[in-house]
Amino acid sequence: MALKETFFISHGSPTLSIDESLPARHFLKGFRERFLSHQKPNAILVISAHWETSEPTVNSIRGRHETIHDFYGFPKPMYQLKYPAPGAPELAKRVKDVLMASGFTTVHEDKKRGLDHGAWVPLMLMYPEADIPVCQLSVQPNRDGTYHYNLGRALASLKDEGVLIIGSGSATHNLRSLGSSKNIASWALEFDTWLKDALLSGRHQDVNNYDMKAPHAKVAHPWPEHIYPLHVALGAASEGVNGELIHHSWDLGSLSYASYRFPSLNRSS
Hints:
Strand order of the largest sheet: 5-2-6-1-10-7
Pfam families: LigB (PF02900)
Structural class: alpha/beta
Strand content: 15-25%
Largest sheet: 6 strands, mixed
GO molecular function: ferrous iron binding; oxidoreductase activity, acting on single donors with incorporation of molecular oxygen, incorporation of two atoms of oxygen; zinc ion binding
Order of helices and strands: EHHEEHEHEHEHHHHHEEEE
Family: Belongs to the DODA-type extradiol aromatic ring-opening dioxygenase family.
Keywords: Dioxygenase, Metal-binding, Oxidoreductase, Zinc
Number of helices: 10
Protein name: Extradiol ring-cleavage dioxygenase class III enzyme subunit B domain-containing protein
Shape: globular
């Protein structure tokens, strides 16, 4: 069966993997029942903010993934977590083929890289059995939002093959601004609200040009890697479709866990 939607998940802090006080953790644990209880994806394609390359790269893993603990100074139990999902080499080849057919002339394969925490932290909550094949696709921080939106458009046909496409990043991501305050920083709130309004009203081009259109864009995203997975998920939905805010919470004064669903229009089931 075809899948009719794509998703953007704000994965926030790696402590999402263990911290029961975070509302986003409970949202992700209920994700499958809320959105995909009727269907198990054939495979999952994750575009993670934590894999940056100069050109599109997919991981093509045979067997089980290694779990990459790509964070530092966190509680010891977090480094003992594993998410040994099977690799998806066939999907990796399909991703490479559809991207190259759409004009992305160079697409690399990485046959060794496991899952970084942008992928395995949300997936261990959404699909704890780790029984669905997973493929990761990198982001290119040297490119812009429109480029990543077009990456998503090229990937859209994979939904017809039962592939769940998830962008994993963060609606706001300025690590130097994090604190313990329960009061949300005004710049974070203004950017987050602008992004929500643009997505819910289907203003895709504004989102693609967020760095010029959105208030406090450079403060909310000093570097763009955490917002580009959103552009890919958005591009893989129908052009102009209105997004749906499916979760919203804050942590550490400026870290938004806003997550979105993008339905697809006029697709066969």
